[in-house]
Design goal:
It is a single chain. It is globular and about 70 Å long. It folds into 2 domains: 2-38; 61-276, MetI-like fold (Orthogonal Bundle). The chain has helices at residues 2-38, 43-48, 60-68, 71-102, 108-120, 124-136, 143-168, 171-179, 184-195, 197-213, 216-221, 230-235, 245-276. It has 13 helices and no strands. Residues 75-266 form the ABC transmembrane type-1 domain. Pfam families: BPD_transp_1. Belongs to the binding-protein-dependent transport system permease family. The complex is composed of two ATP-binding proteins (UgpC), two transmembrane proteins (UgpA and UgpE) and a solute-binding protein (UgpB).
């Protein structure tokens, strides 16, 4: 009797779990499905009924969106800016996290407070001073300068996450490498980095997503038509009095697609990296 009750309870729990996951899946995929559906409609049909199946498939929405948003230029700008930011953040954050994890820092509480403060502080607090300072230095419309701003914003999060990976590595590995004659740089590059590579990949994916979608700093510091990013050119597609929603939906799908494909290809490593970063230090 007890066995039957436990079996019924386990089945109920399983059904509730799958039901909750199914609802979460529908809520997550519904906006994407709606985006794909409306990207192939004429604007008038979207306004009449955004949930209806397309009466005619407007594939030219994608070609017009690509040309009008100048994606051949702006997406390349976004890719260069995102790649530069990822390289800067991963290189500086991994070095900083290694030192904080392997050296006793007397002012660790102050460092933690600083990292948390810079992570949670809104960028609007620093936007005007940064703009005037960069304007004085002639760094407006300079993608590398914007990458430096992104690095300063995203590095605290990356440092705190990567520090947990380094703390999880046994010190015996480091001591064994020292006995073999390796210096600190060789230990870091040949022993530590290969072990924490899932964490670095996780940081790269998160920072890349933030950099690709960032709008406020990009539209403030990259004002030239040849320097703007894809998200800014997408914003400019919307007119003041009228908008071609079919073209806008197609442009949104073009911007989202590279990120979705990249995440699908690397999702297993990303999940492993997030699970490894949950270790408390």
């Amino acid at each position: 009797m007890k066995h039957e009750v436990k079996l019924v309870e386990s089945r109920t729990t399983l059904l509730l779990t799958y039901g909750a996951l199914g609802i979460a899946l529908i809520v997550t995929l519904f906006p994407i499905a709606l985006l794909v559906l409306n990207s192939m409609k004429p604007a008038t049909q979207i306004v009449q009924n955004p949930l209806a199946w397309p009466e005619t498939f407007r594939w030219d929405n994608f070609t017009r969106a690509w040309d009008d948003a100048r994606f051949s230029t702006t997406m390349l700008n976004s890719a260069i800016l995102t790649a530069t930011t990822i390289i800067l953040v991963c290189s500086t954050a991994s070095l900083t996290a290694y030192v904080l994890a392997r050296r006793k820092v007397k002012s660790w509480k102050i460092v933690t407070f600083y990292l948390l403060g810079t992570t949670t502080a809104p960028i609007q607090l620093f936007l005007f001073p940064l703009y005037f300072g960069f304007a004085k230095l002639g760094l407006i419309n300079n993608p590398f300068a914007v990458a430096l701003i992104y690095t300063a914003i995203f590095s605290p999060f990356a440092v705190m996450l990567l520090r947990t990976y380094f703390l999880a590595i046994p010190r015996e590995l480091e001591e064994a490498a020292q006995i073999d004659g390796a210096n600190h740089w060789q230990i870091f590059t040949r022993v530590m980095l290969p072990i924490v590579s899932p964490g670095i990949l996780t940081v790269a994916l998160i920072i890349g997503l933030y950099s690709w979608n960032e709008f406020l700093i990009a539209t403030t510091f990259l004002q030239g038509a040849d320097n703007m990013t894809a998200i800014v050119s997408f914003f400019l597609l919307s007119g003041q009095y009228s908008s071609d929603w079919g073209e806008i939906m197609a442009a949104a799908l073009i911007i989202v697609l590279p990120v979705v494909v990249l995440f699908i290809l690397l999702q297993r490593r990303f999940i492993e990296g997030m699970a490894g970063g949950s270790v408390k230090g």
